[in-house]
Amino acid sequence: MQTLDSVSAMQALAGELRAAGRTVALVPTMGALHEGHLDLIRLAATRADVVVVSIFVNPTQFGPNEDYTRYPRDLEGDLAKCADAGAHHAFIPTKDALYPPGYSTYVNEESVAKPLEGVSRPAHFRGVTTIVTKLFNIVQPTCAIFGQKDAQQVAVIRKVVTDLHLPVEIVTAPTTRDDDGVALSSRNAYLTPLQRTAAAAIPQTLETVKSMVAKGERRAERLTAEATHLLSQFRQIRIIYIAVVDPLTMQTQREVVPGNSLLAVAVWVEETRLIDNALL
Ligand SMILES: Nc1ncnc2c1ncn2[C@@H]1O[C@H](COP(=O)(O)OP(=O)(O)OP(=O)(O)O)[C@@H](O)[C@H]1O
Ligand SMILES: CC(C)(CO)[C@@H](O)C(=O)[O-]
Ligand code: BAL
């Protein structure tokens, strides 16, 4: 696997691949790679001739009191994992290359990004849509792979791609879970064993809500009330939101539309912010 640490080297490679008619799949990540990321890389390898993984902890998507500085970083381990999973190139730009002094251009999606994460992390999606657009411009991928764990992120990026006519196919990969059902996440590394037990209540709650829907419950209010009740049993958990939403627009639904409704959950497990979701 080749490592590229400058924008110009990545642009030169993108130009060569394009000229040679090779298809390119981009897997954007913030590093601290786990099996969920590796599943995205493996999926990418089935979708294009060449797989590029970007590793960049993007400062603009973190709020002022968030975990940018303590976000887990393990570049050496990440490169070995990328190579094992079948990546051909790792793009590892520096913060200064992507945001030099005086940087002032942002991409803002103003509808899908507003609810849920947009309420509690107001500048988050502006940072995500900006960095993802920049990565698309630099790497010029044929397709890009994103995880369903970050369901609103996928919906926002799809909207940006449509609205800005970006020539990139967005591919969504299913959420990879641990044995206890917890969605793999770099932030799980922050959890103590006791907090981890509490975190396992999140997927259990998603399963309970899915079974209520399977038995015929359609009222969003009933489903979110049950989910709130189940999660509130854990003193380590503080609910940020629980909502039944349209998976494309992220607008709240009062009634579940089977196959077209998403239960989206965000909680604090003490100091650790976790999100998860289930298609209903
Ligand atoms: N468990 C998972 N299953 C599938 N995809 C995942 C999973 N976790 C992360 N991803 C995807 O990997 C990509 C990079 O995510 P990121 O580097 O933020 O990892 P993360 O584990 O989600 O970290 P964080 O703790 O910041 O949420 C995103 O498209 C994200 O949706
Ligand atoms: C898409 C992304 C890599 C942009 O920084 C990030 O939001 C993430 O890891 O999901
Ligand atoms: N996976 C989303 C990255 C973030 O929480 O900033």
Automatic annotation (TrEMBL):
Name of the protein: Pantothenate synthetase
Record's keyword annotation contains Cell inner membrane: no
Lineage: Bacteria, Pseudomonadati, Verrucomicrobiota, Opitutia, Opitutales
Main location: cytoplasm
GO cellular component assignments: cytosol
Coiled coil: none
Gene Ontology MF terms in the entry: ATP binding; pantoate-beta-alanine ligase activity
Binding residue positions for (R)-pantoate: 61, 153
Gene that specifies this protein: panC
